[in-house]
Specification:
It is a multi-pass membrane protein. With 96 residues, the chain is an all-alpha fold. The chain is built from four helices and no strands.
Length: 96
């Protein structure tokens, strides 16, 4: 089940990254330039759920694979940056 947790972390990371980009580059402009805040509510909720799932999976991967704390911290920081989870995915794909 070890590798499957990394695969799941990668998949959730991709969806989390996509939801973050949609929130930043589509929903937020619609809110502030078109007066449509509903998209921020929808995609904000989706992104929030995916972010929490990503963090929980990161904790599981840390426990099962004994990742160094600096690597866990780097993966967490990647989830906070636009396009960060895509860079993380590319690195994990090479390694695993």
């Amino acid at each position: 089940m070890g590798k499957s947790t990394i695969d799941l972390l990668r998949r959730v990371g991709i969806f989390e990254g996509i939801s973050y980009l949609v929130l930043l580059f589509i929903a937020m402009p619609l809110k502030y330039f078109a007066g449509l805040p509903v998209f921020v509510l929808i995609f904000g909720m989706i992104h929030g759920i995916l972010f929490i799932l990503f963090v929980l999976l990161l904790f599981l991967v840390w426990q099962r694979h004994r990742w160094p704390l600096i690597r866990v911290f780097g993966a967490f920081i990647a989830s906070l940056l636009p396009f960060g989870t895509f860079v993380l995915d590319a690195r994990l794909r090479k390694e695993y």
